[in-house]
Amino acid sequence: MEPWDHEKQTSKYYRRQFGFYNAQRGGHSKPILTRRIYETIADKPALSKRKGDIVKMESGYYENLSGDWRDWFLAKSEKKKHWRRNKGVSLHAMDQYAVVANRYKCIKYKHATYSDYGSTIMFLTGNKPCHIRKYYIAYPFKVLSKFPHIRKNGSIYVRMKKPFRVVDKTWFIFDFNLSDYINNLLEKYEDCELTRDMFLSKIKEVWEYNI
Question: Which domain holds residue 154?
């Protein structure tokens, strides 16, 4: 199964819950069997992050020194020595580019029903190309460009790290022309979930062919 395919899974897990009486007296928690449903979400314009959107991961540090004098007088390379590490961003993900491959929600049935929404992303640069990660609640990345990545002048491209490059406003991954490929998809299918799935599939195919 590819990361952009849709799926639905039901599972059970044990969670611990303190009763008021026991919790007040330092008693043991009680394991409770709980049902959980994981399912992907169909792509739609209402989503803030959609399949095919390009994102950039954060630096992996909490960069704000809270008004410390070092914020004013040190260069960024020097400030970095004083930043706190954000472990929500793994070492291989720091400042790398990725693409949203899917959206999902996880429904948990406790004393009330809870739904956690998240994103599945596929890395495009760095030392783990096509590596898949799921992020929910906190998103350690920002959306850099929305699919189909059309600029104001009508060109299709996103400026990213190698192996992506832009030549005369034309977007390439290795030697494959992504701009023309997206244009052809839009002419044939318009902007729909199938178009976005084919875009994701082609990027993964080209990457794997060149590894």
Answer: 8-18+33-58+95-210
